[in-house]
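Hey team,

Sharing the Adenine DNA glycosylase run so nobody has to redo it. Sequence (349 residues) first:
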Amino acid sequence: MDFKNKLTHWYSINKRELPWRKTKNPYYIWLSEIILQQTQVKQGLPYYEGFVKQYPTVFDLANASEHDVLKLWQGLGYYSRARNLHATAKHIAFDLDGKFPDNYKDLLKLKGVGDYTASAIASIAFNEVAAVVDGNVYRVLSRYFGIDTPINSTAGIKEFKALASSIIDKKEPANYNQAIMEFGAKQCKPKSPDCSICPLKDSCVALQKNLVDVLPVKLKKTKVTTKYFNFLVCIDQNKNTLLEQRIGKGIWQNLYQFPLIESEKSLTTKEFQLLNLKDTALEKLKFEYSLYNETDKIHKLSHQHLHTKFWIIEVDELPKERIPIKNLTTYPTPVLISEFIEHFNFNSM
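Structure output:
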């Protein structure tokens, strides 16, 4: 039994029962693939179910507000995925009359859809022979064939795509693609896989050469920067607060946060007192303040580590842009902010 037959046989016995595997509807498959980009199934599943319930068709999603889409996405991170999801839904609903592109080439033109996602949708929804290459597939192919070309190099991307395309099951591409991805997720795990029960163990190069912990090879490219955030949690006597919407192309685009001051280092209470508050929400206000967390809360993103402090600002009355504290949870916010809202006792103020 060859490589692909062993994989699909293993898959028939070990596959997880997941809702997007019970349909050929390209909307549901596209939705699941966007949610699962850089997200594990156990985390993404409830979000998928939430989106299907809230927006059962592409027209429902297209007609939603970005505010509501971001709110439903809250906690998944990489929010550009949600914005692209919404933009693509509008394009399909209004420009394509609700009809999804039915081939890899045209799917690749959609916003937020790259090679992997286009291949997945094309093969699963339309049975096109389009090989998927995601993190799980890189790992399986690298180990089984003993390939040490870095998977995030230009040469590696081309090499693994060519290899995946050469061995895909041309009669059942959907089943094969799902099989190799599931195999990487459940059997050929990143760390400490149980090779003793692997159906490919007799012909796996990495196992034979003791390279399982070495492969796949990945170049370290991302330089992590450190930033210092000071959030101003303003509270007036009428239980109002302030939020601001992040604009531009940086992190958390279009999400809401408490007014923010960035600093060059972590501030002490005395240093905060000396800040220039011009052009901030506090510029013309008389206020009392206290530090909520003496130790920085460190929020790690893929390319940034945010050292964060929350400053509690008490004022008599906030400007007209104020919102009732009771409405805070209706705004789409980054996890860092939503966790603070959840744990801070506003009623005690």
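The first strand starts at residue 225 and ends at 235.

Ping me if you want the raw files.
A.
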